Amino acid sequence: MKLLQELSSELNKLFLFELSDQRRVEVVFYRGDTLCISTQVGCAIGCPFCLSGSLGLLRNLTLEEILDQYRLLKDKLCIKRVAMAGIGEPLMNWERVKEAFWYFKSMGLKVSFYTTGHPTKNLTELLKLPHNGISISLHATEESKRKRLLPHAGTLEELIKTLKEELYYLPQRKKKRISLAYLLLKGINDSPEDLTKLARLAKELEVGITLLRYNSTVGDYQDVGDFEYEKAFLLLRSYGIRVTLSTRFRRDKLGGCGTLLVNRKLIGC
Ligand code: SF4
């Protein structure tokens, strides 16, 4: 595996890696301390608001390929945290992701995850690891709507059932590191009714909400705009829920959420 190209914006650094079969994956360094790495070449979940999965799943990354994303960059960046949040669904390459997790922990790194929660049997294991944060992509509180936004992520019913069963046994300090990720899409999932259902679910599960804004460089959906975003934040807060907001790092057109590509061609800096 080799580093082919490095691109920088004001906020993020994006690294393009070529694998031994000439496929390419991407990695982002953001927030000045966090390396967001990929776990698969492509993704089977097929979220229509994300470019990373637009070719479907081409293959899983090997353990060495997951680790090399860190090992090939560690001497040039000040990496304190690894986020398994790049291309791919970590729970669908779970045995290797789990081994990579323990390696990163042994290097003294904090490790966090972004996941759809599918398959739920692997989510059950993930929840028990000494992680530093898990965001579980919900994006909708109705089965049919979530199916449109995360077509191959299992059912909402099963996800919620698993969360209720597993979180029941988790101590409060561990629940504080778990949140439901909710990407606000104008006219799709941003009504007061949608947000009230989301707030009630988070309250019942005793977890936070990561309220994401749409990165309009990615596709055909519409961002809600500042005013509606702040209103949604206040509505969720009125239920006493911990709400994390999207930062500009996540919305940057270079390396922001949903912008990572599989097999990108070299581009001019
Ligand atoms: S948002 Fe995540 S789960 Fe959905 S297609 Fe993109 S990489 Fe896969």
Which class of secondary structure composition applies to the elements? alpha/beta
> Could you tell me how far the N terminus lies from the C terminus, measured between alpha carbons in angstroms?
22 Å
What is the topology, as strand order, of the major beta sheet? 1-2-3-4-7-8-9-10-11-12
Q: Label the CATH architecture.
A: Alpha-Beta Barrel
DSSP, total strands: 12
CATH class: Alpha Beta
- The low-pLDDT segments are none
3D structure, described in words:
The protein is an alpha/beta fold and 269 residues long. It has one domain: Aldolase class I (TIM Barrel), CATH 3.20.20.70. It is 31% helix and 23% strand. Helix 3 (120-128) packs parallel to helix 5 (156-167) and helix 7 runs parallel beside helix 8 (226-237). Residues 43, 45-47, 50, 52-53, 87-89, 116, 258 line the site of iron/sulfur cluster (SF4). Iron/sulfur cluster is lined by residues 43, 45-47, 50, 52-53, 87-89, 116, 258.
SSE diagram, text form:
Blueprint: E1 2-8, E2 13-18, E3 24-30, E4 34-37, E5 40-42, E6 57-60, H1 63-71, E7 81-84, H2 94-106, E8 110-115, H3 120-128, E9 134-137, H4 143-149, H5 156-167, H6 172-175, E10 178-184, H7 192-205, E11 208-213, H8 226-237, E12 243-245, H9 248-251
Parallel strand pairs: 4-7, 7-8, 8-9, 9-10, 10-11, 11-12
Antiparallel strand pairs: 1-2, 2-3, 3-4, 5-6
